[in-house]
Design brief:
Blueprint (H helix, E strand, L loop, with lengths): L3 E2 L19 E8 L3 H11 L6 E4 L15 E2 L6 H9 L1 H24 L7 E8 L3 H17 L4 E3 L11 E9 L2 H10 L4 E3 L4 E6 L4 E5 L4 E9 L16 E13 L7 E3 L6 E6 L5 E10 L6 H16 L2 E14 L5 E4 L5 E5 L5 H17 L6 H4 L8 H19 L12 E7 L2 E7 L5 E4 L11 E3 L4 E3 L6 E3 L4 E3 L10
Parallel strand pairs: 1-16, 2-3, 2-11, 3-8, 5-13, 11-18
Antiparallel strand pairs: 4-7, 5-7, 6-7, 9-10, 10-11, 12-15, 12-16, 14-15, 17-18, 19-20, 20-21, 22-23, 23-24, 24-25
Bound molecules: flavin-adenine dinucleotide and FE2/S2 (inorganic) cluster.
Length: about 500
C-alpha cells in the first residue's frame, strides 16, 4: 500500500466547508479556533439555547492538532497521579482525576445522546513497563491510585500480549474516531461557523471584547473564547514562557501479532503508545518517539525508529498512514484553562497530549465562567497560577541558548532543489526559505519566525517551516499554522 503523510482521521472527514467571514458581526460569544476545544465549547454553550454564538477558524475545522491525535479517551495521563500528589497534594490530584473521569463519561454520553457513529470502543487503558525504572514508576503510580481510590487492575507480565514487566489497567476508558465524533457534533450545532477567518487582534471593550479578522472585519462579543491551541492574545501575552511545545510521531500498521484490544502506553522514552482502530478490520496505531521541538531531530529518523520498535515488539508490518504533530504542556503538568484577568477572554491550552478529556473539562469550565456558575475544578486549572516557578525560570533560561543556536545555524549557499522539496539557503548574505512545488512554482520566504525572530527550519516531509523556540509552524507559502506567531512569513 502507498505510504502517506496524512492523518488517518482526516481522510474520513465529511469534508463540509464553511464560508469565510465577510462582514462585521455582533454576537454574545465568539469562539476562536475550530479544534476539539472550540467545538466542544460551542456545543456546551449552544445547548444553553440563549446565546448568539460564532465560531471562527483560520484554516479548516479540526485540521490542526485535533486531526492528528491518537484518539484515546482516558484519565490515565501517563503517571500523573503520583506526581500531582507529590507536587500539589492529594486534594488536587483527586480533583484532576474526577474532572477527567467525568470527561470520559461526558464524551461517551455525547456519543450516545447525539447518536454519533464514531467507532467508540470501551477499553482498558494500560500503563506498562519495558524497563526496571518504568516498573518502579508504575509501582509509585499504583500507590497513588490506592491513595486516590482510582479503580485499577494490576496486570502481571504474563497477562500482557507483548513482552513487558507488567501493567496497570484502568477499566471503562475509551478510544474513538475523533473526526467522525466532531462531525457528528457539528451536524446538529446551532452556531454560525466561519472558516478561513483568522483573528489577528482581540481587545477588551466596555461591553465585552472585540476581535479583528485578517480581512479587517470586526466581531464584537460579550465573551471571547481563545480555543486556539496557543492562546493568541497580544496584551500581557507571555504564554510562550509558560507552555512548552513537544511533538510526537504516529504510524498505522495493517499487520500485527497481538490481539486487537485495549490501549497501552509506557512511561520513559522511547514511548510506544498503542491502540487499535476499526473493529471490523482491525489496524494497529502506534505513537511515540516524542521530543521537545527545540531538538533538531529528523522526522524520517523518528518515524523510522517508531516503526522499527513496533515491528520488533508487536510484529507490526504494512504501514500506511504516518504523521507527526505537536502539543503544548504547562510547567506543572496541569492545563491552563480559564479567564484572562480583567477581560472577558477565556483560554484553554497546555493539554500535554491528553487534550481530549482536557478539552471537555475546558468546555465545562469556560461555560460555567461565562454563565457565572461556580465550577468545582476551575481553581485547579486557573491560568493565572504559578507565575514564576523554578521550572519556568529554568525553561526560559535554556530557551535563550536555543534562540542563539538558531541564529548561528549555517546553511548552504546554493543547492539544487527538486520539485516538491524545500530548503533554507544563504543568498547575498541573508537566509531565504525556498520551496518548489510539483509544477515548478517557487515560493520564497524570509525564514525568520514572526514571533520573536528565531531562524526557522524546513521540514521536507510536511512541507512546513518550524520554529524550534516556541513551536510556531508555517506552511511552505509562509501562512502561519500554529503557535505564538500570528503573522505570516514575509514573502520574498
Ligand atoms: C501526536 C499526538 C497524539 C495525541 N494523542 C492524544 C490522545 O490519544 N488522547 C488525548 O486526549 N490527546 C491526545 N493528543 C492531544 C490532543 O490532540 C490536543 O491536545 C488537542 O487536539 C488540542 O485541541 P485544541 O482544539 O485545543 O487545538 P487545535 O486542534 O490545534 O485547534 C486550535 C484551532 O485554532 C485555530 N486557530 C489558531 N489561531 C487562530 C486564529 N488566530 N484565528 C482563528 N483560528 C485560529 C487553528 O487553526 C486550530 O484549528 C495528542 C496530540 C498529539 C500531537
Ligand atoms: S515561536 Fe517564538 S520565536 Fe518562533
Amino acid at each position: 500500500m502507498k505510504k502517506q503523510v496524512l492523518s488517518y482521521w482526516l481522510k474520513d472527514s465529511q469534508k463540509k466547508t464553511y464560508p469565510r467571514l465577510e462582514k462585521n458581526l455582533n454576537v454574545d460569544i465568539l469562539i476562536v479556533g475550530g479544534g476539539i476545544t472550540g467545538i466542544l465549547c460551542a456545543y456546551q454553550l449552544a445547548k444553553q439555547n440563549k446565546y448568539r454564538i460564532a465560531l471562527v477558524e483560520k484554516n479548516r475545522l479540526y485540521h490542526s492538532t485535533t486531526g492528528f491525535t491518537t484518539g484515546k479517551v482516558t484519565v490515565q495521563h501517563d503517571d500523573i497521579y503520583h506526581q500531582l500528589i507529590k507536587n500539589k497534594g492529594e486534594t488536587i490530584a483527586r480533583a484532576y482525576y474526577q474532572a477527567n473521569s467525568e470527561a470520559v463519561q461526558g464524551l461517551k454520553k455525547i456519543v450516545e445522546e447525539e447518536n454519533i457513529d464514531c467507532d467508540w470502543v470501551d477499553t482498558k487503558a494500560i500503563l506498562y513497563a519495558f524497563s526496571e525504572e518504568e516498573a518502579k514508576r508504575l509501582q509509585r503510580e499504583q500507590n497513588a491510585y490506592d491513595t486516590l481510590g482510582i479503580p485499577y487492575e494490576w496486570l502481571d507480565k504474563e497477562t500482557l500480549p507483548f513482552q513487558t514487566l507488567g501493567g496497570l489497567a484502568i477499566p471503562d476508558q475509551g478510544v474513538f474516531h475523533i473526526v467522525r465524533f466532531l462531525d457528528g457534533i457539528l451536524n446538529n450545532l446551532n452556531v454560525d461557523i466561519y472558516e478561513k477567518t483568522k483573528i489577528i487582534k482581540t481587545n477588551p471593550t466596555e461591553k465585552g471584547a472585540v476581535a479583528e479578522t485578517a480581512d479587517h472585519y470586526k466581531i464584537s462579543a460579550k465573551h471571547i473564547v481563545l480555543a486556539t491551541h496557543y492562546p493568541i492574545y497580544k496584551r500581557f501575552n507571555f504564554y510562550f514562557t509558560k507552555i512548552k511545545p513537544t511533538c510526537s510521531y504516529v504510524a498505522i500498521a495493517h499487520e500485527f501479532a497481538i490481539k486487537p484490544e485495549n490501549a497501552y502506553i509506557n512511561l520513559i522514552d522511547p514511548v510506544l503508545s498503542i491502540r487499535f482502530l476499526d473493529s471490523a478490520d482491525p489496524k494497529l496505531m502506534v505513537a511515540g518517539f516524542g521530543h521537545d521541538v527545540k531538538n533538531y531531530y529528523s522526522y524520517l529518523d523518528q518515524i523510522h525508529k517508531l516503526k522499527a520498535m513496533a515491528t520488533e515488539r508487536l510484529g507490526a508490518k504494512d504501514f500506511t498512514e504516518e504523521w507527526y504533530n505537536q502539543d503544548y504542556e504547562s510547567m506543572d503538568m496541569v492545563p491552563l484553562i480559564g479567564k484572562i484577568t480583567d477581560a472577558p477572554l477565556y483560554l484553554a491550552t497546555g493539554f500535554r497530549k491528553w487534550g481530549i478529556t482536557s478539552a471537555f473539562v475546558a468546555s465545562l469550565i469556560i461555560k460555567d465562567l461565562i454563565e457565572g456558575i461556580n465550577n468545582q475544578y476551575a481553581y485547579l486549572y486557573d491560568p493565572n497560577r504559578n507565575k514564576n516557578t523554578f521550572k519556568t525560570v529554568c525553561y526560559n533560561f535554556a530557551m535563550l541558548s536555543t534562540v542563539i543556536k538558531t541564529k548561528l545555524l549555517t546553511v548552504p549557499k546554493s543547492i539544487k532543489i527538486n520539485p516538491g522539496n524545500g530548503r533554507i539557503i544563504q543568498h547575498k548574505g541573508s537566509k531565504i526559505g525556498l520551496y518548489i512545488d510539483q509544477n515548478g512554482k517557487t515560493y520564497s520566504v524570509k525564514p525568520i519566525c514572526t514571533h520573536l525572530g528565531c531562524t526557522l527550519r524546513f521540514n521536507n516531509v510536511t512541507k512546513t517551516y518550524e520554529c524550534p523556540c516556541h513551536g510556531s509552524r508555517f506552511n511552505y507559502d509562509g501562512t502561519s499554522l500554529d503557535g505564538p506567531a500570528v503573522r505570516n512569513l514575509t514573502q520574498l
